[in-house]
């Protein structure tokens, strides 16, 4: 470590990621490093790299200008900060605490409020890049807090990362990290669906992983579509409309093939079904709620909410709808289908399953005779899934109601197969 004494930095928490982060600080010019951890081994390793060991958080806090905290969870961060603010720093300059741990969204503001009366500034600064990025000094660090505190911590942040983002006020770094990790772990879950599909098809899972890593390195993976500064719908004149239109065309085609293969092989792929439903709308092109030119003409002159409701009714019921009269129809189209069925919390398939369960319990075979064929025709429920629903719900709705539902299911499956056979014969 350089003998130049510029920024006095401290590091608490020398674990899997904290240790290599601290080693980067130990090797940085212009930084004098102090460390503390309850484990002796990493402290000794940092000492050999030139860092000074502190016997306690209080001793460390009294000696530094910027203090990095990388501990397990919110409670441990609070414990460290309590020791920091209790430290006598008479005659010292301001202290800036960097919270690198990923905590709850509300925790950074709570920590800042606790620290501020003691002259301690808090920045939430979670990291992305894992142990490898920490060791290489190539982390992304996502920072929330005041510009003054950010400027004070800048030399420390730069020594540990090649991408430092000042996301905004306190808590913004944590929220940005949570958004990033949503993508990370949702992608992991999607990868498990792809593995199950490949395995059921008799394919080499190791080869699949190699292909994914190879092509993501070329295309940029999910980040390749993340260049816009808004999630608002895209105007047709916008450059991205053509780009994402091509993405949607390819994506819906390939997702459709993948879901069909999954159905053939009996593999559950709920994320793929959700992606097929939401890809277009997620990219800003409207998706399932976007009307094609014929629908625009069909519902021309109707209020936007009524048109949205009627389109959703056609999707849910599986047959053409026309506008109706009276308050009851208006509430049904505008509120139930224009609003409730289109809320983002559940997919159409989710709502359909809930409704089928309710209707089965009521013995409403007539309404099941609408909902089940529509779900089957839309690809929401396969033959096997419908039959499994009958078996499951019969134990709760009673065998007479189950028998009525089974009749609807078998009629639906039989009708679809006869229609498919006629189509083949005609071709």
Q: Brief description of this entry?
A:
With 427 residues, this protein is an alpha/beta fold. Helices cover 59% and strands 10% of the residues.
Tally of strands: 9
Strand order of the largest sheet: 3-2-1-4-5-6
Helical amount among residues, as a percent range?
55-70%
CATH superfamily of the largest domain: NAD(P)-binding Rossmann-like Domain
Largest sheet, in brief, is: 6 strands, parallel
CATH architecture tag of the largest domain: 3-Layer(aba) Sandwich
Number of structural domains: 3
Q: Specify Rg, calculated over alpha carbons.
A: 29 Å
| Termini separation | 77 Å
Features:
alpha/beta, three-stranded mixed sheet, elongated, Rossmann fold, 59% helix
Walk me through what this model shows.
The protein is of the alpha/beta class and 427 residues long. The chain is elongated and about 85 Å long. It has three domains: 7-170, NAD(P)-binding Rossmann-like Domain (Rossmann fold); 178-289, N-(1-d-carboxylethyl)-l-norvaline Dehydrogenase, domain 2, CATH 1.10.1040.10; 297-426, Up-down Bundle (AhpD-like), CATH 1.20.1290. The N and C termini lie far apart (77 Å). Mean pLDDT is 91; it is low at 287-293. It has 18 helices and nine strands. Strand 4 (66-69), helix 4 (74-85) and strand 5 form a beta-alpha-beta unit. The protein has helices at 18-26, 40-48, 57-61, 74-85, 107-115, 130-136, 147-160, 172-200, 205-219, 239-265, 270-282, 293-298, 304-317, 326-337, 348-362, 365-377, 383-397, 399-426, and strands at 7-12, 31-36, 52-53, 66-69, 95-99, 120-124, 127-128, 139-144, 161-168. The strands form two sheets. A six-stranded parallel sheet has the order 3-2-1-4-5-6, with helices on both faces. A three-stranded mixed sheet has the order 7-8-9.
């Amino acid at each position: 470590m350089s003998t130049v004494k510029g920024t006095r930095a401290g590091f608490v928490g020398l674990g899997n990621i904290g240790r290599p982060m601290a080693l980067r600080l130990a090797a940085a010019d212009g930084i004098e490093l102090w460390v503390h951890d309850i484990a002796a081994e990493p402290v000794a390793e940092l000492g050999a790299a030139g860092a000074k060991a502190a016997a306690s958080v209080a001793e460390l806090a009294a000696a530094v200008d910027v203090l990095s905290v990388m501990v397990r969870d919110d409670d441990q961060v609070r414990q460290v900060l309590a020791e920091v603010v209790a430290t006598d720093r008479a005659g010292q300059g301001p202290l800036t605490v960097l919270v690198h741990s990923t905590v709850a969204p509300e925790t950074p503001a709570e920590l800042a409020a606790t620290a501020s009366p003691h002259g301690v500034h808090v920045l939430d600064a979670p990291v992305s890049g894992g142990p490898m990025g920490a060791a290489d000094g190539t982390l992304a660090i996502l920072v929330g807090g005041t510009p003054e505190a950010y400027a004070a911590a800048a030399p420390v942040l730069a020594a540990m990362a090649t991408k430092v983002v000042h996301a905004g006020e306190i808590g913004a770094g944590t929220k940005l990290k949570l958004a990033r990790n949503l993508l990370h772990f949702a992608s992991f879950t999607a990868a498990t669906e792809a593995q199950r599909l490949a395995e059921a098809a008799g394919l080499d899972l190791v080869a699949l992983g190699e292909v994914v890593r190879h092509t993501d390195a070329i295309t940029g993976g999910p980040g390749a579509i993340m260049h816009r500064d808004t999630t608002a719908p895209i105007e047709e004149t916008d450059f991205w409309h053509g780009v994402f239109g091509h993405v949607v065309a390819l994506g819906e085609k390939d997702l459709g093939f993948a879901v069909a293969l999954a159905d053939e092989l009996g593999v559950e792929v709920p994320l793929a079904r959700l992606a097929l439903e939401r890809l277009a709308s997620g990219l800003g092109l409207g998706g399932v709620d976007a009307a094609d030119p014929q629908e625009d003409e069909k519902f021309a002159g109707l209020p936007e909410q009524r048109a949205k409701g009627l389109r959703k009714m056609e999707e849910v019921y599986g047959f053409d709808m026309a506008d109706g009269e009276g308050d009851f129809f208006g509430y049904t189209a505008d509120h139930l289908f224009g609003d409730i069925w289109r809320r983002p919390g559940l997919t159409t398939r989710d709502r359909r399953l809930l409704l089928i369960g309710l209707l089965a319990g009521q013995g409403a075979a007539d309404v099941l005779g609408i909902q089940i064929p529509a779900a089957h025709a839309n690809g929401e429920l396969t033959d096997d899934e419908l039959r499994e629903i009958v078996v499951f719900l019969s134990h709760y709705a009673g065998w007479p109601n189950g028998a009525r539902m089974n009749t609807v299911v078998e009629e639906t499956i039989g009708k679809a197969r006869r229609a498919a056979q006629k189509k083949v014969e005609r071709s």
